[in-house]
Amino acid sequence: MKMTVDFEECLKDSPRFRAALEEVEGDVAELELKLDKLVKLCIAMIDTGKAFCVANKQFMNGIRDLAQYSSNDAVVETSLTKFSDSLQEMINFHTILFDQTQRSIKAQLQNFVKEDLRKFKDAKKQFEKVSEEKENALVKNAQVQRNKQHEVEEATNILTATRKCFRHIALDYVLQINVLQSKRRSEILKSMLSFMYAHLAFFHQGYDLFSELGPYMKDLGAQLDRLVVDAAKEKREMEQKHSTIQQKDFSNDDSKLEYNVDAANGIVMEGYLFKRASNAFKTWNRRWFSIQNNQLVYQKKFKDNPTVVVEDLRLCTVKHCEDIERRFCFEVVSPTKSCMLQADSEKLRQAWIKAVQTSIATAYREKGDESEKLDKKSSPSTGSLDSGNESKDKLLKGESALQRVQCIPGNASCCDCGLADPRWASINLGITLCIESLGVHFSKVRSLTLDTWEPELLKLMCELGNDVINRVYEANLEKMGIKKPHPGQRQEKEAYIRAKYVERKFVDKYSMSSSPPEQEKKIVSKSCEEKRLSISKLGPSEQIRASPQSSVKSNDSGIQQSSDDGRESLPSTVSANSLYETEAERQDSSVFLDSKHFNPGLQLYRASYEKNLPKMAEALAHGADVNWSNSEENKATPLIQAVLGGSLVTCEFLLQNGANVNQRDVQGRGPLHHATVLGHTGQVCLFLKRGANQHATDEEGKDPLSIAVEAANADIVTLLRLARMNEEMRESEGLYGQPGDETYQDIFRDFSQMASNNPEKLNRFQQDSQKF
Q1: CA distance linking residue 290 with residue 266, whole number of Å
Q2: What integer is the mean pLDDT of 704-708?
Q3: Which domains does the chain have, with CATH numbers?
């Protein structure tokens, strides 16, 4: 092992030792400057990158607007939509890269500077102080006179004590130096390696994305070459047509060019005419007239609905008008009214008159053949609707977070669009998502490959899954005739996700689950047995008395639920206080509820005790308040019921969905109190990690630590005291928001692993503990 400063030289306090210290101290100061500079540059780079992502997203939105504007051109719209989707994915990749950079460079190096270099500086201060004290003791010992025996002994004792203290602190200082020099290499390399892996993932994702887009771009390029050739050809044809028309003589036989009875668009003739108004002033207005569908109509503007002058040309006549002052006039007369019109020239007047006369004759011929045409066109038509079922792939269970989560039914594809091999997860819903859902999903999202997963969170993901959640949030999807969006349909997908999770449009609002009578009896029997076990472990002061429970009444405040639907309610679970009642009081307590109806909050309350995650998810989908309190059972919350039920995963699910870890019942006991009383070590560890207040006291003035000490639960006492020491240390050193020292983190990590994977190891104080 190579040491920067030798321990033997430290004991000698030789000039070589002092020179080595001076060199190391200068090197550490220079290292601190370099790391501070690197962290600042990293922050600037991340801020610039985020600004780039914002500008890039605005540019991408501009491309989408252009695609929507080009909706009449399928090639342009499809291409721009595909390109904007690819750019959006690149923006997502950039965002992930900057997040990884912040974690690998900024967070890790800042922690190294604040923690390790701070310890070095503290050791340096102590060393310099004791060095000065040693020098003073040596000078004083040298200056004392021989004949003053008392002063000689005092100086000798001071020098001996000072030397001993110097050796101790100097050895600690050298140890700190050697540890720092050894750790700096691993910290810097670990940070940079993580940063480079983030870049590797970014460029690999970009390469995969554009590799998939490559064939389309290649086809589009070939199509573009054809479009260029076609455009050049069309340009030559239009130039030739322009030249031909420009050279054409319109002076002769204009009427032949003005109308066409067999026109494909049904318009026999059209053009501008002056129309005399029927008002008293007889004003003339220029309008765009057309003959179509055996009618004479006109428009002032193109988007205006045509005004009908003659309903049926078969009933009208047309004639010249020479008895008025204006030239080139003609009149269209119907049985009810007449219309005076003026053309721009005599030839145009003749053309309009001939067009009207020809249309009248054509209308008579078409009327005679109308019945025959209708018979030929009429034919029966039938249609059918085909439906299909999507197959579900089953994955083998692996060891990684990705493999463990994806092997759950339905998790092999995105919960919202069905894209295969999703790499992201919603931790509060317990579903898997594709990367297209990240920007629109209204939940807590975490990567299955890039992020570190706590054991209780990973176990929560494995308890739910896409099939379970979709049975709740897509219960009415088929009834409503709505189809799930396909991958790549970002706007449709965003609207679908909002309707599914925020507006909850597809949830069956009348399908509140209920338990059969046989299940009710099992729950009640199990609850009574649990009460006996809980009471046997408690001291006299913990056997809290509670008044007999009255029947819970359904409270439909804010819940759209029919009051006469006839459904049976779930069984009443054991209240927070009934677990601590005596045998006599339990005989008077009512275990079942009288009410036949319940609100979603009550369903969540019961399902939390029953450890039924699907029912809990269903209750939340129906609008249950995760912090709902049961006024009939001492204002206990679903989280407190989850503690009484003994499930760590149930507690984690409620916390991820916003449950208040410090909400207490009427006796002043929160989830941490109840977990401590019942000896649920894993839950105590979880609540402390989630910010539970261990200083809160109940109505007897007891905090969780005093309860654990009285119950002689060594594991929980250790956790509470360690958490309290860590909290005091962070407050004294001003490290607010920091996780704590490594010892604290390691111990809590071990307890979390045991609580999730080997709960039997924590059941030293429970003979018949429940399974998680």
Answers
A1: 10
A2: 90
A3: 7-241 (1.20.1270.60), 257-367 (2.30.29.30), 401-502 (1.10.220.150), 517-558+566-762 (1.25.40.20)
